[in-house]
Amino acid sequence: MNARHESILNHARSRWLWFSLALSLTCLIAYAWHSPSVPPNGGTWLGYTLGTIAGLLILWLMLFGLRKRSYSGSSSLRGWLSAHIYLGTTLILIALLHAGFQVGWNLHTFFLILMLLVIFSGFFGVYCYLRYPTLMTRNRDSATRSAMLEEIAELDQNALALADGIDPKVHSIVLRSIQNTRLGGGVLTQLRARDDSDAALAGIRAALEAREKNNQAAGGAKSGQTIFAMVDFLASGTNDRQAEALRKLIDLLSRKKALASKVARDIQYQALMEIWLYFHVPLSFATVAGLIAHVVSVFFYW
């Protein structure tokens, strides 16, 4: 299979899926075969064995952050990520078998909850990495974000030049719209994918509607519903050159709106791909701290 089209879930012919299934099956067989004189729990020899495996898995999974920086974009990184996903999922079963499916209001259950939060936040991360890169590629339509931003800047300059020859009020509307256009910003702004790039079109529409009302008050007819119909209707109040410039300006602003919406969606998709890490990474370190507390309490205070 071509590496470029290989999913992290079926990397190397799903090697880590099969390894994780084999590990899970081995642990289940050992748990079913084990017959302690007390109810299954973490204090039996099998409980200690499974606990050791689970603890080592947690520490190994934490190494992925370091490996991610060392192997960025390589096949080795995909292999580590595939192992990270499948072994992290297997950790749920091993931890529950280690505890003998016994939970209570104590430090050990708190540690288990932390670990589960890390794993399930990781599931959301997998969903993001499988879904949003495809949406980003489709949204960009073979263009890069920097190229789209450069085109928006060029459209802004051309729009200002056209507005300068139409009317000072139109020029003011376009300039204010450029100054108020915000792409990116805070986390909530990125997630909402708002760009406010249609302010100029709204302003010009409002100005044209005001002129149309004045024409109607003077006994004129009513124009069509679209902004281009309004331009055609009001062309008699301006010279042909201004009317043509206004049509071109509206076309430029419409193109800018479409591009700005694409950039805003691109930023939104990237934010969705990254925001889960603000939960996953701190919870991962909290889980390691919980692991240490769990081990210390078992060997020194249990």
From TrEMBL:
The chain crosses the membrane at residues 16-33, 45-66, 78-101, 107-130, 275-301. Keywords: Membrane, Transmembrane, Transmembrane helix. This is Ferric reductase like protein. It comes from Tahibacter harae.
